[in-house]
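Moderator note: this is an archived Q&A kept for reference. The question asked for a predicted structure of one protein chain; the sequence and the answer are reproduced below.
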Amino acid sequence: SDGGAKFNWYAGLVKSQIENALEQDKNITQGQYKLVVSVWLKPNGDVERVELIQSDAKDEVEAAVKAALNNMPHMREAPPEGMPQPIKLRISARKLG
């Protein structure tokens, strides 16, 4: 079995969960940013730690992003066995409209 495909699939789930969390906050959705985020998960899918490792966001947007990441709900699916951590994700937003 190909672990890599499973890991990529799961990283995609984590990414969409982060994007959903960020979309809840108007301060974030108004902004333009590129972020790189590291996520550590517990074996049951709870978020253990999230770190913003790169960001070009304005300070208030960055603060809102950090708050959203800290309040991120746990993953519905547990990570696949042997999932390399942290899961490193690039997240970017473009102003809509």
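Archived answer notes: The domain at 3-93 is CATH 3.30.1150.10 (Fusion Protein Consisting Of Minor Coat Protein, Glycine Rich Linker, Tola, And A His Tag; Chain: A; Domain 2).
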